[in-house]
Amino acid sequence: MAKKLFDFMIAFSCVILLFPIILTVALLIRFKLGSPILFTQDRPGLNGKVFKMMKFRSMLNSKDMQGNLLPDNERMTSFGTFLRSTSLDELPGLFNVLKGDMSLVGPRPLLVQYLPLYSTEQARRHNVRPGITGWAQVNGRNAISWDEKFKLDVWYVDNQSFLLDLKILLLTVKKVFVREGISADGHVTIETFKGSNND
């Protein structure tokens, strides 16, 4: 409860302080990328319960002749790359924190279709609320392997504390400024998780 109260107070303060930036980014997205401004997607949260995660949209909605979205690298623009590299696209996640679906710090919420692919150990990442940032994000983000990412997520679950959360938040600020680990080699974001051979 203390963590949830801390999350709410910080998220609320950030929304108030950063509102001019949030509004400016929203208007730029509307002008440069069109509608919708927000990207929403089902993601698993605490205990695997699905919620709607919000981010600022960073890609075009370009589709092929069959109506399927084009690959990420063909839809990404320089403006979208800027939003991701500065983590401005994550600002709407503050509203997920206010709703109680997310925490400021915790394992990043991944795709719903990954749920049946986790090993028993990896699935423990859902024992806590997902976060806007997390231990894996400040230790490599998208530039590390899935196995490394999940080990860091589970380590956080077993070692979470108020001081650790503060450390992660401070390291996140540093990572945003140096723009490290934004994408995996050869990918606009990160390669698809195809499952683990570990039980």
Explain this structure.
- By secondary structure, the protein is α+β, with helices and mostly antiparallel strands.
- It is built from 7 helices and 4 strands.
- The strands form 2 sheets. The chain has a two-stranded antiparallel sheet with strand order 1-2. It has a two-stranded parallel sheet with strand order 3-4.
- Helix 1 (2-17) crosses helix 5 (93-99).
- The mean pLDDT is 88.
Q: What is the structure about, briefly put?
A:
The chain has 199 residues and is an alpha+beta fold. It is built from 7 helices and 4 strands. 40% of the residues lie in helices and 10% in strands.
Q: Give, in order, the helices and strands.
A: HHEEHHHEEHH
Could you say which overall geometry the principal axes of the C-alpha atoms support?
A: globular
SS field, number of helical segments? 7
- Biggest sheet: strands side by side, in what order? 1-2
What would you call the structural class? alpha+beta
Major sheet summary line: 2 strands, antiparallel
Uncertain residue ranges? none
The radius of gyration is 17 Å
Q: Beta-sheet strand percentage? A: 5-15%
User: How many strands appear in the DSSP assignment?
Assistant: 4
Fraction of residues in helix: 40-55%
What distance lies between the first and last C-alpha atoms, to the nearest angstrom?
A: 33 Å
Name the average pLDDT.
88
